[in-house]
Hints:
The protein has 14 helices and no strands.
Amino acid sequence: MRPSDLAELVLLAALWGGSFLFMRLGAPEFGAVALVAVRVALAAAALLPLVTLRGQMQVLRTQWRPIAVVGVVNSALPFLLFTYATLSITAGLSAVFNATAPLWGAVVAWLWLGDRPGASRSLGLAVGFAGVAWLAWDKASFKAGASDTGLAVIACLAATLCYGIGANYTKKRLTGVSPLAVAAGSQVAAAVALAVPAALWWPAAMPSLLSWGSVALLGVLCTGLAYLLYFRLIAHVGPSKAIAVTYLIPLFGVLWGGLFLGEQVTLVMVLAGLVILCGTALATGLVTPAFLHDKGMGTAPRRD
């Protein structure tokens, strides 16, 4: 990976880690539905001109049905769920749960596409979900009068499950389709899907400038620009290396939450987060234990 690619990877992680900060800042005044509607509308407005400049509007016309599904499953629903979660839990904790997306992706690929994981990846799934159970057990509360935290944890995991479904659906239905067209079209579809709900649940009081600024940065930088960086990385270094951004997002999510919101980081958050990341690294094939290589049970080393 060239230094410029590495710099883009870190910038992407910083942007996606920052999305949890901006959701937490904007959600109390906007509400989850209105915030996400504005977010995806701004992202669509930022990406559509690029699609037009590159002459890819025809792609949107011919592939609009599967792209619309991706927009709902991979943007509208998970964005709503994560925004709802940030009303009750910290930005840093939400970012740590976000790291489970590749785990769900591997499970969905196994159950839906028949992509059976080998020994190393199966071990990774077990380790990763053990970390999730540990973190959820420590943070979630379902006691009377304190259920919001538990529901927020469930919302985070449901959101990452949506990401896993969306990634596999994209692989199944949109392989070979321009990534830029998919990114822009999915944001348009998400905006259309949320237009009526946002009108119904629009906040009664005008949100403050801070909230509007947070949503603007969330839509333009953390969604529009972030998608462009992600697809540039896929083109330059390949998807297997671009997915490494997953391991940096929790770091930035916790960092921004601590710097700007004064959020506290607990020992359990750190340790369980490391367990989740180790499991994710195994489940995605980024690393394979030597003892599994020795038995011929791991993933063959990549030469790209």
